[in-house]
């Protein structure tokens, strides 16, 4: 079964939102990296990555998430991830991968879009 990878953009309040679905891997991660760069190039400094429909994430996908965090920090921006605790199979795959690698603590994680965009963003810490 082939799962199509897709990144769609939108806005909610002051936040740019990228909805990501499918498999985030070596082949697809450059697409997400480019879309994040596009948001920043267009002046977006508050970004939510909705990863609730990502069913697989490998190390290159994690690398894009870390690079996105670094990019947003460099422009004094804000990055939040949507990683629901409950999902199709025991919660978010990306959440489990980030936790297993010990990098989940680097991200401001929310369970849904409303909570990710409801209050003002604080600066990303080191």
Short description:
This protein is of the alpha/beta class and 126 residues long. The chain has four helices and five strands.
Q: What report would you give on this structure?
A:
There is one protein chain. With 126 residues, the protein is of the alpha/beta class. The chain has one domain: 2-Layer Sandwich (Transcription Regulator spoIIAA), CATH 3.30.750.24. 34% of the residues lie in helices and 29% in strands. It has 4 helices and 5 strands, in the order E-E-H-E-H-E-H-E-H. The chain has helices at 29-41, 59-74, 93-101, 113-117, and strands at 6-12, 15-24, 46-57, 78-82, 108-110. The protein has a 5-stranded mixed beta sheet with strand order 1-2-3-4-5. Strand 4, helix 3 (93-101) and strand 5 (108-110) form a beta-alpha-beta unit. Helix 1 (29-41) runs parallel beside helix 2. The longest helix has 16 residues, at 59-74.
């Amino acid at each position: 079964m082939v799962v199509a990878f897709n990144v769609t953009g939108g806005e909610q309040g002051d936040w740019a939102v990228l909805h990501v679905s499918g498999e985030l891997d070596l082949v697809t991660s450059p697409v997400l990296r480019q879309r994040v760069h596009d948001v920043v190039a267009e002046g977006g400094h508050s970004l939510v990555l909705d990863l609730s429909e990502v069913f697989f994430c490998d190390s290159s996908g994690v690398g894009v998430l870390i690079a996105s965090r670094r990019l947003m920090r460099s422009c004094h921006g804000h990055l939040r991830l949507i990683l629901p605790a409950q999902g199709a199979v025991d919660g978010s795959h990306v959440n489990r991968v980030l936790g297993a690698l010990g990098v989940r603590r680097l991200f401001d994680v929310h369970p849904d879009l409303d909570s990710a965009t409801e209050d003002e963003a604080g600066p990303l810490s080191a």
